[in-house]
Automatic annotation (TrEMBL):
<feature type="transmembrane region" description="Helical">
    <location>
        <begin position="176"/>
        <end position="201"/>
    </location>
</feature>
<feature type="transmembrane region" description="Helical">
    <location>
        <begin position="83"/>
        <end position="105"/>
    </location>
</feature>
<keyword id="KW-0472">Membrane</keyword>
<keyword id="KW-0812">Transmembrane</keyword>
<dbReference type="Pfam" id="PF01381">
    <property type="entry name" value="HTH_3"/>
</dbReference>
<dbReference type="InterPro" id="IPR001387">
    <property type="entry name" value="Cro/C1-type_HTH"/>
</dbReference>
<protein>
    <submittedName>
        <fullName>Helix-turn-helix transcriptional regulator</fullName>
    </submittedName>
</protein>
<keyword id="KW-1133">Transmembrane helix</keyword>
<feature type="domain" description="HTH cro/C1-type">
    <location>
        <begin position="7"/>
        <end position="61"/>
    </location>
</feature>
<dbReference type="InterPro" id="IPR010982">
    <property type="entry name" value="Lambda_DNA-bd_dom_sf"/>
</dbReference>
<keyword id="KW-0238">DNA-binding</keyword>
<feature type="transmembrane region" description="Helical">
    <location>
        <begin position="111"/>
        <end position="135"/>
    </location>
</feature>
Length: 205
């Protein structure tokens, strides 16, 4: 990426410190340092502010980076699509195991309305749901580590298209909280779906 060098060169040309630039574009000095070190990438709004501050175009700031961004998006999109398919397949497998076990294992249990097959089916559903959640979490890590959301926004902006809706705002601001909420919601949804399907199968018998 060429942006880190462009930021540093333009900042030094104007005799500004990282803190000075950060103050002018409403970000922290740590954020500015992260951009100059290539650890993260500024979003479209920050690039607009930087271009105004440095009196250069966004094209001059990002230069060949857009091509690299598009290649990154294309490559990771294939990986994430495969992971999404795998996640969906695991969930379907869990549902199939749950229904099948319920159908063939009718021994009674101390749990009301639940046969041994029903309980085993719920356990199978949860077992399949866990790796599905792990795949979903890995997709989010790929997005974060490769700045895919930011890259999509910049790529769309440079092509004159409307930037994609920022559905990942929480994951970028508070990644730990976002991951915890995602895991909790996924686990809860898995248990609810498994329990509801088991009750439905019981009612249809």
């Amino acid at each position: 990426m060429e942006l880190p060098e462009q930021l540093k060169a333009n900042r030094e040309r104007l005799g500004l410190s990282q803190e000075d630039v950060a103050h002018e574009i409403y970000v922290s000095r740590q954020t500015m340092s992260s951009w100059e070190n290539g650890k993260t990438y500024p979003d479209v709004q920050s690039l607009l502010l930087l271009s105004q501050l440095f009196s250069v175009s966004i094209d001059e700031l990002v230069k060949g980076d857009v091509i690299s961004m598009k290649n990154m998006i294309s490559k990771d999109a294939v990986t994430m699509e495969r992971m999404s398919i795998g996640s969906a397949a695991l969930i379907l497998m869990g549902v199939a195991c749950m229904v099948g076990l319920h159908a063939v294992w009718q021994d009674p249990t101390p749990v009301p309305y639940m046969t041994a097959g029903s309980l085993a089916g719920i356990a199978a559903m949860v077992v399949c749901w866990i790796p599905s959640l792990m795949l979903s979490s890995k997709i989010e890590r790929i997005k974060k580590s490769h700045n895919l959301v930011t890259y999509r926004e910049i790529s769309a902006f440079m092509d004159g298209e409307e930037a994609p809706e920022d559905s990942d705002a929480l994951s970028r601001r508070k990644p730990v909280l976002y991951s915890a909420v995602q895991i909790a919601c996924g686990a809860g949804a898995g248990l609810i779906v498994a329990f509801a399907l088991t009750l439905l199968v019981n009612a249809l018998r």
